[in-house]
Specification:
InterPro entries: Papain-like_cys_pep_sf (IPR038765), Transglutaminase-like (IPR002931). The protein is of the alpha+beta class. It has helices at about 15-75, 85-100, 105-135, 145-175, 185, 190-205, 205-230, 230-235, 240-250, 255-270, 275-285, 290-300, 305-315, 370-375, and strands at about 270-275, 300, 320-330, 335-345, 350-355, 375-380. The chain is elongated, with a radius of gyration of 29 Å.
């Protein structure tokens, strides 16, 4: 028992799993004897060293290649497919534009590629090196009390190493998800707390507890952006009546700004906010996903539906537009989840924000105080 009152017999499953890992490795060591246990231990150590080297090499390679891939994609001058383009054309554009615009996604994709290649190349070499190093021990007899005793000691050491790795994984989970569903339960394991405090935390320093959550937050933001980009694909195939409506609304408009303003006025004045949809989600957890066609037909929706319909109609008349998600001012001193758009004006060579959901409350087409009431949180498509 330690100072904080835990014992190895507490009822926490994490404690028992850690003990089971060591106990099973001990049993394997006794069964294999000295020779087999040494081979297993050496293979474990070589594999761990090789894994670290592979991760470092893959990370360095991905970091080095990432800017070149970005420049290559920029030089390709990707053009958004037309609204009637095939699913594969839309998906290809979304994937490539994501790699071009999202640095962590680009790094992760390259890392996986390099890691897979290097791992395949080193897999056979790892076994070969472990076999060569352990060859002198192959002449040691595997039977007998002494051999099995030595094997048990080596097995226990191997089990301890495995338990440390498992504890490190749990420690990383707790750092990434401090409010996660299992975090509190993991922390209730006395054995986990002791190993984390005495071994993992001193060994990793600030990597897990400070840097890893920051990286995870940035990655989550990019994944959110990529998730929002799915609208580029699923909203691409518009029915003729929406395309015709967009063409009619923007007919005779001289430039991008006039077209964008006309669509903002049309959607903002004709679509009604669906309060029932909000209540169903907040009180029952019932989220009613709807596409631009449904929003156009029912003339009802919430902010993301306004934004998706605007983006779809704008793209059908060759405007370059984004769907943005984040927080919007709720009028009561706080902020809540919200979605809006940004459209690119060719003459001005800039993106401007607009919020057709709020159009009935005032001018939210590139208004001066737009950034004071809208906080982007990573969701961005286009």
């Amino acid at each position: 028992m330690s100072g904080d009152g835990w014992t190895i017999f507490d009822a926490n499953w994490v404690t028992w799993i850690l003990l089971a890992v060591v106990a099973f490795s001990l049993y394997q060591g006794i069964r294999r004897g000295a020779s087999g246990s040494v081979k297993q231990l050496l293979f474990f150590l070589v594999s761990a060293i090789v894994s670290v080297i592979v991760i470092i090499l893959s990370a360095v390679a991905a970091s080095s290649v990432s800017p070149y891939l970005k420049d290559w994609l920029i030089e390709r001058d990707l053009v958004r497919p037309k609204a009637d383009a095939s699913f594969f054309a839309q998906f290809g554009y979304t994937a490539l534009s994501g790699l071009r615009d999202l640095p962590l996604l680009r790094f992760s994709a390259l890392f996986l590629v390099f890691h897979t290649i290097v791992r395949l190349l080193t897999g056979l070499a790892t076994r070969l090196v472990a076999s060569v190093i352990s060859f002198p021990f192959s002449i040691v007899p595997t039977g007998g009390t002494v051999s099995r005793s030595i094997g048990g000691v080596i097995g226990a050491a191997l089990g301890t190493g495995r338990a440390l790795l498992f504890t490190a994984v749990l420690f990383a989970y707790c750092a990434l998800f401090p409010q996660g569903p299992f975090t509190d339960y993991i922390g209730q394991s006395g054995l986990y707390r002791e190993v984390a405090a005495q071994v993992i935390r001193p060994a990793t320093g600030k990597l897990f507890e400070e840097k890893l959550p920051v990286f995870a937050q940035a990655m989550t933001s990019e994944l959110d952006q990529l998730w929002q980009k799915r609208y580029d694909v699923i909203d691409a195939d518009l029915p003729a009546n929406i395309v015709q409506a967009a063409a009619s609304v923007t007919e005779g408009k001289p430039d991008d700004e006039a077209k964008a303003r006309a669509l903002y006025d049309w959607i903002g004045s004709r679509i009604s906010y669906d309060n029932d949809k909000v209540v169903a989600y907040e009180e029952k957890g019932d989220w009613r996903e709807q596409n631009p066609e449904q929003t156009f037909a029912t003339r009802k929706g919430v902010c993301i539906d306004y934004a998706r319909l605007y983006a779809a109609m704008a793209r059908s008349v060759n405007l370059d537009v984004r769907v943005v998600t984040g927080l919007g001012y709720d009028g009561r001193g706080g902020y809540g989840p919200h979605a809006w758009n940004e459209v690119y004006l060719t003459k001005q060579q800039k993106w401007i924000p607009l919020d057709s959901t709020w159009a009935k409350t005032g001018n939210w087409f590139d208004s001066p105080g737009f950034s004071d009431t809208h906080i982007r949180q990573g969701g961005l498509t286009g």
